[in-house]
Amino acid sequence: MPAVADILIPLALDTAYSYAVPHGLTLAAGDVVQVPLGPRETIGVVWGVEERASGGNLRPVTGRVEAPPLSEPLRKLVDWLARYTLAPKGSALAMALRLPDEAAQRETSRIGVRASGRPASRPTTARGKVLAVAADGAVRGKSALAKEAGVSLSVVDGLIDDGALEAVALVPEPVALPPDPDHPRVPLSEAQAEAARDLIAAPSPSPAETGGTILLEGVTGSGKTEVYFEAVAECVRDGRQALVLMPEIALTAQFLDRFAGRFGVRPATWHSGIGGKRRERIRAGVASGEVSVVVGARSALFLPFARLGLIVVDEEHESAYKQEDGVHYHARDMAVVRGRFERCPVVLASATPSIESRVNAQSGRYRHVSLPGRFGGRPLPDIKAIDMRLDKPEVGRFLSPPMVNAVKATLAAGEQALLFLNRRGYAPLTLCRACGHRYQCRNCSTWLVEHRFRRALVCHQCGYAERKPEACTECGAFDHLTPCGPGVERIAEEAAELFPDKRIVVLSSDFPGGAERLRQELETVAAGECDIVIGTQLVAKGHNFPHLTLVGVLDADIGLTTGDPRAAERTFQLLQQVTGRAGRGERPGRALVQTYQPDHPVIAALLSGDAERFYEEEISAREAAGLPPFGRLAALIVSGEEREKAEAHGQALARVADPPPGVMVLGPAEAPLALVRGRWRFRLLVKTERGIDVQSYLRDWLARGPKPRGNLKVAIDVDPQSF
Ligand code: ADP
Ligand code: ZN
C-alpha cells in the first residue's frame, strides 16, 4: 500500500494536508519536506505517516529538505500552542520553523581570499596596498580586504584574475565554544549553595504533570543568577542542553560577560537581531547538540534542542514574555509546557514573581526556593515617599525640592543618581493655548508625544511622526503650542539646568545610534562615567550599576490608574525593580518616590519593604474578584477600518455568545486604545471560572458566529496580560 504523509505547512492553516510519499523516499514524523501547494512549492513538516489506500490521487511530496527535523517534544509543543492559543496550527509551526532566507543561502557559498605567493603582473599603488594587507597570509572576505586596504572591490577582483590572490572557502567559526561547567568560580554563599542544591535535585517532570517547575525567588542582588548558573553547569556536565530565557532588553553584554566569567566563554545567543546565516547555524548547532547553552529571548523557546535538560526563565514576571501579535502566547507558560514534554525541570527566577507563579508556589504546584536578602548582607535600599501634595516642584518643574536636595547630596559624595520616569520623549501631550487643540495621531487614538531631540511629534503606537509646527495648525497662533507633562528628555533639561557641570545621560529605547551604542552607554554608566542617569523602564531591569546609590522615581502613580486588572502588580514589580538598582555596589543605596497617593496599597507596600504584604493583599483581591489565576480571562479583539462595521461585528458575536454557567461575556466595548494604525478595535471579554475549558467555549462560539469579512479581523488573546 502506498504511504501517505500528513504535512503541516507553516502558514495560517488549521490542519495538516495529505500527500503521497513517492517510491524510494522514507519519511518520519518531524522531517522537513518540500511539497506542492496550489501552483507553487512550499516547505512543511511531516506530522504523521501511514499506509493508506487512497494515496493514489494525492499529490506527491517533492522531496526532503536539509534542515533539522522537529523532535517529538517540539511537535507536541506546536500542537499544544495551537490548541491553547486557538492560533492556526500552521502559524504555531511557523514559530518553530524558520528556514534560511535567500540572503542566508547565498552566504553559504561565501569565499575568502588570501595571498597566493605569486607576484602581481601589473603592480599599481592600489594593488600594492592590497598585497601589503594580504601579506600576513590570513583568509579574508573580498570586501573586508578591499576595505582594509582602502581600495575598491575591483582592485581585489583584478588581483584574483591575475593570480596574485587565491580564493578559498571561508571556514565558519563555531557558533559558540563549549561552556566549561567546572571553570574556576567565586564560591557561593551558604544560602546560595543550598538553593543551588535544591535546583539541581529537582525531579524531571512527567509529561502529565507540572512537577519540576521551581520558582526561584530572591530580592534584586540576592545572587539568583549565580544560583541558576549552577543548575546550568550541572546540566552541561550531564551532557544535556540548557536554555536561559530573558526579556530581550536584558540580554546585555554585561550579562554575557557574567556568563563568560562563570563558564569561560560567552553563550550562543538568540534574539530578533540575529541575522540569517547565523540563525541557521545556531539552529543546526542546537539540533546536533553541539551548542550546549543558549541564552535567548522568547522565540528561543522554539529551537530544536536535541537533549534539552533545563529551562531557566529569568525575570519570569516580565510582560515582555507575552507575544501580543500573531500567535498570542506567553513564553513563561510555554516554557513550563515544553519542560513537561522534554521531561526537564524549569526554573522561574524573579525578585518580584508574577501573581500566577506565586499562587502556584503556594499551592505546591511549583516548588519554591528562596534566597534571603542581598548577597553579602548588603542592605536593601531605604525607600521613602515624597508626598507631592506637600512638596510641590516649582511651576513647570517636575523635581520636588527634597528630590533636588537628595541628588545634590549624592553627587557631592561622588556617587551616581538615577531619575526614573517611564515616559519616552519630551512631553506626552502638546496643547495650543490659543484654541485648545491637542495634537493627536492620525492613525490612532493617542496623543502625539513631543520628541525634542528629533524635533517631531511622534505616535508611540504606530510610529507616525510629523514635524512640530511653528504655529498651531488649527488656529495659526504662534508661540502658543505648549508641552504638557514630562518625558525623560524634559527631565534631562531640568537636570541640566540644576546641575550644569554634571554628566547626564538619557536612556530610553529612543537612544540614538541603535542597540550597540546603547549597550556601550550602559557600560559607561556601569563604570561610573556619568553622574545622573535619566531613564525609562529600559534602565529599571537587569542592569548592575555599582556606583548608583540614589534612585528617584518621578511619578510612581503613572501605572496605577489604567483600569487594567494587572495595574497594581505591574506597578509594584516595576517600582521594586527600579528602586532595587540602588546600592548594589559597596555603598548602601536609597530611593525616593514622588507620589500623590502615598497611602495607595502598592506604594505603601513598596515603602514598607514588605513584599509579602503586597502579595497577600493582591492575591486575596484577585481571588475575591475571580481574576487570574483564580478565574480565567480571554479577549476577542474585533478590528476593522470602519468603526461601525467593527462594532457591528462585535455585537453580532455577542448576540450568539450564549455563555454556559460559569462563563461571562462582556462587551463589545471600545478597546482602551480604540484606534491603532488606522484600525478601530472593539473588545469582548470572556471571564470564566477556573475549571472551565475556555478554548472549547471560544471555538464553539466563533463557529456559531458570523465570519469576519473584508478588512474585519478577530484576534483571540487567551490570558490577556493588559487591557
Ligand atoms: P540577582 O540575580 O538575584 O539580582 P546577582 O546574581 O546579579 O543577583 O548578584 C548580585 C551581585 O552579587 C552581583 O554583582 C554578583 O556578581 C554578586 N554575587 C552574587 N553571588 C556572589 C558570590 N557567590 N560571590 C561573589 N559575588 C557574588
Ligand atoms: Zn499612531
Automatic annotation (TrEMBL):
It catalyses: Couples ATP hydrolysis with the unwinding of duplex DNA by translocating in the 3'-5' direction; ATP + H2O = ADP + phosphate + H(+). Its cofactor is Zn(2+). Its EC number is 5.6.2.4. It comes from the Bacteria. Belongs to the helicase family. PriA subfamily. NCBIfam families: priA (TIGR00595), PRK05580.2-2 (NF004070). This is Replication restart protein PriA. It comes from Methylorubrum salsuginis.
